[in-house]
Amino acid sequence: MQLRLDTIALEQMETDALAVIAFQADSPEEGLGSEAARRLDQVTGGWLAEAYRSGEFTGKACETLFLHRPPNMRAKRLVLVGGGKRERFGGLELRRAAGALARALRARSITAPALALEGEAAQVRAAAEGLILGDYEPDRYKTEKKNGKPLEKATLLVPSLEAALEAALERARIVAETQNWVRDLVAEPANRMTPTLLAERAREMASEFGLECDVLDSGRMSQLGMGALLGVAQGSSEPPALILLRYRPPAAGDSVVHLGLLGKAVTFDSGGISIKPSENMDKMKYDMAGGAAVLGAMRVFAQLKPAIPVTAVIPAVENMPGGRAQRPGDVVRTLSGKTIEVLNTDAEGRLILADALTYAKRVGCTHLVDAATLTGAIVVALGHVNAGAFGSDQVLLDRVLAAARVAGEKLWPMPLDEEYKETLQSVVADLPNIGNRWGGAITAAMFLKEFADPLPWVHLDIAGTAWLEEAKPYMAKGPTGTPMRTLVQLVLDWR
Ligand code: BES
Ligand code: MN
Ligand code: ZN
What we know:
2 domains; binds manganese (II) ion; binds zinc ion; Aminopeptidase; binds ligand BES; elongated; 6-stranded mixed sheet; 9-stranded mixed sheet; Leucine Aminopeptidase, subunit E, domain 1
């Protein structure tokens, strides 16, 4: 999609559809609270107020109303897009409203719209990201595309052209297009996204954008002693891969910060010998969403050049119950030297991340952030709205939470009290890989903490947010690409 800024007067804009945001309010006057909405109401002789009075438009979040041939305008259609309550209207709401607009346009195969904005950089960014993300459909394997025509050319109308707005637009384009690239990776079925293929995609991306990339194979992993990662991999005939990517800032060689980004990449999680029920097992192709989001973040860094060095460590495996699969009760030795009793082969994410965390410490990372579709328990706790954010260091956790707010992704802080460790007791090894029934997302995080300590570390459990079970008005059903934008914001904002 081509996206551009323009300052032409709203009534002069020649377009298939000119959209404006209007709010949920008791009176049309209040609902038409933006400069652009008031202006369009005047130009059309009150069409917008009339839409409110008729009850056909209320301004509820993501609602849309199409009005044809508005008077005194060059646009073929005028589109009202609900912004929800004005007091609660921020970046996240605008991103969603723009997403809802994109989807409503796509449903009608309208490909060249314009959206009127007030003209702050943050608005340009949220609107551009929303349009690009809303326009995405995971329909690669549909021979006949049934979801309307994608947007070709969209114009953001702003009062004046400033360098800051152009910069915001360019950054939004890079971020949102990369998020859709992440969604494509996550949407791939497991027969087309094995650890080897994911590593190939990482290599291609790295050479396209100028990042260093290394892939450790199972031989190298066993030399190093990554028994936990290899234990998970051994049940599959697909070999594992430890994908490493390095971003180094152009200037500073003196940064004291070196961020390690880790992402769980289980290309298919059957559960292994502790096999999962067949219902919904197909979804377990998205168990590599954390790894894909980290790849996406690196793809953005290569283009936007943040100030701190970042190393990505992505353990990629397939968890299968083959004849050589590890058994419940097996003991593995991790890279850290700690031994683990594998009581449940379906708690595999923490096993591969244990070795990845140790590896990140070995290569000199000073701070660690991981993203993983780690537990069903986080979905029980937080549903599909928030991802869980666990942190061993309040300063780093606050940075991540602040980044998520700016980026428009939802995180909710979760506890890590020492008491939760009490359930992680094994008679035969240093640690079991599961606790008891309760607080499963927290015991999983406590397990990871054993390997992240003593570094400041944040863990994002994205099992509930990486995949949408149902389409939203602003986003297609399927992979979301989260929490890539939070990771991007965290690093770009690092001072
Ligand atoms: N990949 C799953 C977690 C998951 C569940 C992701 C639902 C997305 C949606 C993970 O590997 C897993 O199987 N976790 C187990 C842990 C249990 C065996 C302690 C779970 O949550 O059931
Ligand atoms: Mn599992
Ligand atoms: Zn898993």
